[in-house]
Amino acid sequence: MTRRRLGLFGGTFDPPHRGHVSALRAAAATGRFDAIEVTVAGDPYHKRDAGPVLPAAARLEMARVAFADLPLVTVSDREIRREGPSYTIDTVRELLEEYDEVDLIIGADLTEQIDTWHEAETLKSLVTVAVVPRPGGETHPPAGWASYVIPMVPVDLSSTFIREIPIAEAELERYLPEQVVPLYEGFRG
User: Fold this and answer.
1) Is 124 in contact with 152 (CB distance < 8 Å)?
2) Are 74 and 37 in contact, with CB atoms under 8 Å apart?
3) Going by CATH, does the domain composed of 5-188 fall within 3.40.50.620?
4) What is the pLDDT of residue 141?
5) The pTM is what?
């Protein structure tokens, strides 16, 4: 029997940028996955103190456009449809009804936080963590989790950076997929 393996790449995607695209391309290139699901957080509870985020429908639309042409990748609204905070454990439980294995694809900057996630101990027993390198330090898989590092050159870019600096539309194309630029400009106002 063939075991079907899914890569789960969740996030706020406010906005989805070229670093996200590079991470998904690198994940697809590993040959480990039958499919990769990008899941847009409906209620990104962990971002509440960081300031307002664009509405979920806007972030979903940008993600669908940004990742439309990537191999193996589909963009899901499952966390937007679910009421309440967007917990990775709930998404993993749903996906394990469809797939034999789920690898959680996260940036290296999240490895130190993953133990604080909702039902982290249960999550640890259900997934393997695929770590995307980030610039500015060594990439360490989370201690105590089944994990590996996705081989890729780190991309020095974050959604926070993009939101915090005033950028003219022409400069946005340096950071965002070209087709996302007009959407982001419209949503950002």
Assistant:
1) no
2) yes
3) yes
4) 85
5) 0.93
